[in-house]
Automatic annotation (TrEMBL):
It holds the Pfam family LisH. This is Protein FYV10. InterPro entries: CRA_dom, CTLH/CRA, CTLH_C, LisH, Ubq-SigPath_Reg. SMART domains: CRA, CTLH, LisH. Residues 68-125 form the CTLH domain. Residues 242-260 have a biased composition (Polar residues). Involved in the proteasome-dependent degradation of fructose-1,6-bisphosphatase. Residues 236-270 are annotated as: Disordered. The lineage of its organism: Eukaryota, Fungi, Dikarya, Ascomycota, Pezizomycotina.
Amino acid sequence: MSANLMSRTPSTATPTWHQFERKVDEVKPSKTDINYLVMDYLITNGYPSAAKKFAVEANIQLRTDLDSIQERVEIRTAIHSGNIRLAIEKINELNPQILDENQSLHFSLLRLQLIELIRVCTSTPDGDISPALEFATSQLAPRAPTNPQFLEDLERTLALLIFPSDNLAPGLASLLDPSLRKEIATRVNEAILESQGARKEARLRGLVKLRAYAENKAREAKKDIPEKLDIGLISETHDSNRNTTSSNGAGNRANDTVMANNGDVDPMIS
């Protein structure tokens, strides 16, 4: 990824270039630093094929075991597809302490498994709800009294058995939305990384959050900055910039999209 992806260029600026934009343009991050940021992102968020390709083209040493990334890919793929039982099995094979020491995450996974059982039994008229009830009784009910939030979440989930799935209140409909799988999958990925002594979040995401925070504080303080500030990660007008991004490995993620939200390409590297 070339350095000009991280800063604005005069060709994309407004006719009157703000003083702030000139100062930003004077900052020239090194290509090496940018490449390591991209590599860190690909590894942390689980894009093994793209990471391998990027390491070759950017001449970076891949300092991680691709198998360990693939393990996270398989777990998150299982969650995204609704196969929570398989995901839990793979997590325990990888490191049983992850769920033993994080009861909230374990309960969230079991609750998601219950939701998938409810989804199946309510998808057809007169569906058998006994598998969902049995699972709730054996796996979730014993845990619910240990935490008020667990009990509330279980009660709300069981309400899915009472109301028709095509006419649910927003609070219940959200339980069946694929975004819940995404949320739990992200938490699982972070827990695995933390158990391996790695950062839970890629540096690039941290920088984006820091940049947004700094902009908000500057606006609150009435600082003289442009009305609109582009994030500056991707040029929307220069084909050459898009080609650079693709050649550096982002275009080689066809086999990695299972890690993205609901099967879509992660917007951070699209």
